[in-house]
Amino acid sequence: MMKNLKFVLLAFLVPFVSNTFAQQKPALTWKDVSKWNYNRGNSLSPDGQWMAWASGPTEGDLKMTIRKTLDTLNYSYAIGASAGPLLFSKDSKYAAFKVSAKDVEAKAARKANKPLYDKLTLVALADNKQTVFERVKSFSFSGDSPSWIAIQFMPLESAPKDPTAAKGTDVLLYNLSTKKSFNLGNVTEFAFNKGGDLLAYTVDANGQNGNGIFLRDMKTGITTALDNDKAKYKSINWNENGTAFALLKSNKNEKYKDEVFSIIGIRKINGDLTNKVIYNGLEDDNFPKGMGLNTNGSPYWSDDQTTLFFGINKLNKKEDKKTDTTNKTKVEPKKEDIEKPDMIIWNWQDKRLQSAQQTQEMRDKMFNYTSSYRVADRKFTQLADSNMRSVMVAPKQLYAIGYDNSNYELMGNLDGQSYTDIYLIDLKTGAKKRLFEKMYASNGGRLNIAPNGKLASYYVDGVFYSINLETGTTANLTGSIKSSFVNELDDHNITKPSTQNLGWSADSKFALIMDNYDLWKIAADGKTVIALSDNWKSKKTEVAGRYRIYQDEKGTDLSKDQYFGVFNVKDKKSGIGLLPAGKNKIDILFMDDNSYGSFAKAEKGQVYVYTKSNSQESPTYYASTTANLASPKQVNKNTPDQAKYAWTSGVKLINYVSAHGDSLQAALYLPANYVAGKAYPTITYIYERLTDGLNNYSMPSFPGGGFNKAMYLSNGYAVLEPDIKYKLNDPGMSAVACVVPAVKAAIATGIVDEKNVAIHGHSWGGYQTSFLITQTNIFKAAAAGAPLTNMISMYSLIYWNSGGTNQAIFEASQGRLTPGYWDNWDAFARNSPIYHIKKVQTPLLLLHNDKDGAVDFTQGVEYYNGLRRLNKPVVMITYRGENHGIAKAPNRKDYAVRMMEYFDYMLKGKPAPEWWSKGVNRLDMEKHLEVRAF
């Protein structure tokens, strides 16, 4: 077998030096992970001169750092145990952030069930003068003219807790230059317009006295009551220019169970002469009966302020009270009403399973049917309905696009192949016209609308097209390009899955569409085609996506510099590319063995920032003042404690050939203190394709699946991550065909100890792990999290997190088995771990939680009980109440420790943990839990 194995080793992507003779650093422990210090969150000031980030341990108190992007000046502030966002004022003179309680205080408060309140720190960046405000709920600077900061406070502890009690609290308007402040009482919501010269706010006071929507002129201080009523007001939504806004108003109505909402539209702002539009639909003959305005979305104005857009849903009337008018006696309920059965009826014709309807019940009740109200002629139009539920209002509000899958919903929920009818709705007339019938939707199936609202692009059967919404004229966009626009790496059961559509240029003249490598600039009529990346396919380099760096952009503005991620699929190098303004060629600025991300440009300055990292170096920020990102300056450092510990020595990329004859790759991460010629215990971690993350940094943490790569590398393990290419109707066998040759290729490097190789995966990776150990004995140990184990029973079980069946997931998504097992029994059985269980010789650690809403708990139980019946070594761990991944911190810690104990025993010869070697008596469980605590 070995002599026929074809593989090629690439050079180390990250240089390393053997430190055999250097002083050995200690390996990470799980206690160290609790104290692990790292950066999170990032803010760049509008002028680009300041950056801010929070940092601190995984558990404990944090600090906020604000520093000059291009200088060494920096400020540091204690912010408690949790980090919220930091906001800069638009003039970059001030910063504001919340300060939470310290970790010790927060834990004590949780035990005592006492409330805690955040503080707000306001910093003048010129001199670091700080102003602190107590009991802060929210805050906001005043838009583009940041003379003010508005701060809303939490209610007093003595405030009434009744659901019907007034919800308003104090808002402080604090002038940043004069330090003067003004208090607004009983405020529920507030919102500055874009310019920051106007503040809209709502009031909810005791007894609803003085409730209303108010507008304050921030320059003069004059406040106008735009509407007052014994009502509640919410969902203030300014238009983009800050010249108009809309909101909701609710009144009690004796006819209805629910409050009746109205829309208020405010425009032509001019003090008491401001134009106000109020609409609730109940007095409109065209408004659908039994419906009311929806409260679960924010109404908004059209760009020309002629039309209000909003949602409607069912409005429940109060039931008539039946009384005996003769003797006024109380009517007793009938016995048959009291003893009604509690049941669910599952009908084969249901478009959605009853479980799906139950899971999605609240969503259905709250569903927004998009509608509009044109002010001039008082015309209401319901755009969405029970069949055409999805309606998107296009830019410029000339048209809306509606999607109706009602004729295909049942079959789509059965086999996963989705279709939809697409309609064009004229927003002036309300007329609906079907553009496409039974459009294949499994690979997108939606129109990409141009910024002018008159053009759209779409994909059908391997080809991208455009359509003129005014004339209905279509054009073939990619037909003349000698390249494939079918995604070559998508191996799901989808007909010709599409490559990426990056949308339209800002002037709506060009569509930007990718093949598998190159980005094309295509005229809307398809007659002119330009490759913005010049035959990158020949170098296996691809445009990995566009960075959106301009505020409020509408499409890709080709008159401005545009930046793209670039990536080489062969050697995994990545970088950043620049398409200069007005040019037609992307220049690769740099490309190397690092991972780049978080690229941003200062809103009002010539400063560019991005992160850089690799398998050995955590993400750090760099900044440049030139468009070509020349001479970047490192802004910060990350993970300061890493230098104290043994760390991975780098990563190798292995090329190998699968048993199916496919050329694939695997990433082999080297253990700390690696010595050439020495073989190391190795964890093979699998999912699907993983090598694109070759240069990603692994942050020490307590993950939801138990495995943390950084922790294992620090403790002397190598980690292998192979790619898996799937064949339809053989998902498990495909994993075997790809993973086993990858392991053999890794062993051939001399780095992997062939006698001490383990495998681990979670969810779909858990399935592949469970299956692989039925087909090979190459692994000494295995750990599978939340695995599918019986593809036949799993096929018709329910994905409880959504309520739908797994059938669609199997036939058109990750399961890759189609059609149902009754017509494909051999494939389902051939790829089910449970049907090969007698061949398992590898010890298995199995994680399956009892409330798993993705992979049914019975899958784990069935595999565990089968292995146990055959007297094969297996332990299943279940965390009660946990879902598909482990969420609670004590449980995440516990499983991380147990998994490493297991692998240390199996691969390193350390003593077996008692919970593995002997089991745990239920009565002694508490003792074992206490031992785990740290």
Automatic annotation (TrEMBL):
**Record's InterPro entries?**
AB_hydrolase_fold, Peptidase_S9_cat
The answer on whether this UniProt entry bears the keyword Coiled coil reads no
> Care to name a GO molecular-function term for this sequence?
aminopeptidase activity
User: Tell me, which GO biological process terms does this entry list?
Assistant: proteolysis
Swiss-Prot/TrEMBL keywords: Aminopeptidase, Hydrolase, Protease, Signal
Q: Which residues form the signal peptide?
A: 1-22
The record, for Gene3D superfamilies, names: alpha/beta hydrolase, Prolyl oligopeptidase, N-terminal domain
Q: Where is the Peptidase S9 prolyl oligopeptidase catalytic domain?
A: 740-908
Protein's UniProt name: Dipeptidyl aminopeptidase/acylaminoacyl peptidase
